[in-house]
């Protein structure tokens, strides 16, 4: 639970929302590429160290405001970038989101 509390503290400093989306990619390269795409499209994001409870070979993740999730997925689709997992963080719970390819 301590890791989740630290994550929530980081999130409140990074994204203007009470709820957040966590996007995980397979590699660090893909994570950095996604961050670049967010910046090119004027979407606010933050790269963080991935919480331990989220499995991936990459140690990084991106957090965004959930209001931008659909726009983010469209950007990824256009640029042939596929997230490994998507999660919503709501009230101290991490919930995996099913998304269409």
CATH topology, by name, is Alpha-Beta Plaits
Total beta strands = 5
| Main sheet properties | 5 strands, antiparallel
Helix content: 25-40%
CATH class: Alpha Beta
The value of Rg in angstroms is 12 Å
Low-confidence stretches: none
Indicate the structural class: alpha+beta
Task: Name the beta content range.
Answer: 15-25%
Q: Can you tell me the number of structural domains?
A: 1
Number of helices: 3
CATH architecture: 2-Layer Sandwich
Cα end-to-end separation: 32 Å
Instruction: Name the shape in a single word.
Output: globular
The strand order across the widest sheet is 2-3-1-4-5
Gist?
With 101 residues, the protein is α+β, with helices and mostly antiparallel strands.
Overview of the structural elements:
This protein is an alpha+beta fold and 101 residues long. It has a single domain (2-97), classed as Alpha-Beta Plaits (2-Layer Sandwich), CATH 3.30.70. The protein contains three helices and five strands. The chain has helices spanning 2-14, 28-40, 69-78, and strands spanning 20-24, 46-49, 60-64, 85-90, 93-97. The longest helix has 13 residues, at 2-14. The protein is globular, with a radius of gyration of 12 Å. The termini are far apart. The model has no long low-confidence stretch (mean pLDDT 81).
């Amino acid at each position: 639970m301590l890791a989740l509390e630290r994550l929530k503290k980081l999130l409140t400093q990074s994204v203007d929302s009470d709820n957040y989306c966590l996007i995980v990619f397979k590699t660090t390269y893909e994570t950095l590429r996604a961050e670049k795409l967010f910046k090119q499209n004027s979407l606010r994001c933050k790269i963080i160290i991935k919480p331990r409870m989220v499995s991936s070979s990459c140690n990084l993740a991106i957090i965004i405001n959930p209001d931008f999730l659909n726009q983010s997925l469209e950007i990824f689709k256009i640029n042939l970038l596929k997230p490994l997992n998507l999660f919503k963080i709501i009230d101290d719970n991490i919930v995996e989101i099913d998304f269409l390819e």
